[in-house]
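Please describe the entry underneath.
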Amino acid sequence: MFTLTFLLTYLLTSVIHRNLIKHLDFNVSYFIITILNYILFISIGLMFFGKNAAIAISMSVVFVIAEYSFSYIYHLFQKHRLYSYADNSFDLIKYASLVNIGYYAGGVLLIIATTNNFIPSAIKLNINPNQLIILKLLLLLFSIMIATIFLLSKFYNLDNEKLNLQFRFSRYFLSIILPIIFLGVFLTNISTNFLFIFLIGSVTGSIGEGALGNTINLIVSKRYKHWEYFDYPIMRRYTSILMLPVWGIAAVIIFMFINIL
């Protein structure tokens, strides 16, 4: 029921946007439809979930900051960006977009709804009090890390560096894959459900991102790209193979929040 309402809401706002853009400037109509999406997503979330809606909204803000930090680290190691946002997307130096707060909140609620309906045993972890403390410390460390990277990026501007467009897998492995492997081994020792969640999140997150990008492109304008990937892109450059482990970690973090709060 929630999934159907969510999709109908997105269809409704898309139709409104198509009509607005005929009479208003693109940026103005895009801003209006974004605010409308936020209001509708929050209202539907509160109606169906209550506490989980508050979790989704809070996590969406955290994910925007995390997205910014991840993109900055990628840029730092690779000397070029993995992706970039359009100039009129309320971007944060093209590392993240404030528009994504609504998309992330809706995505979190969609994940919760789908899991509750089809795999309810995966959403709850059988962990003891000591393991719960460890998970809380991990989330605290994660929050401190992304906040630190976010603040440091304000003092070290990478845009002034000479760009190197050649992708280096060794740098990607050291900056992204290796930390994920260490975290994955640690969390799997706490519960094997984390491995299952990681694998499902990797695939569904990447497909969802690509599908959302193509949907926005189809509805808004075939000439408009809200975001675009540069390294190993798939689904018309709206996602990348390199994002598979990143979406897996995002799914794990969502379920850590659900089990702690």
Q: What stands out?
A: The chain has nine helices and four strands. The longest strand covers residues 83-85. Residues 51-78 form the longest helix (28 residues). The beta strands are 83-85, 227-229, 233-234, 239-240.
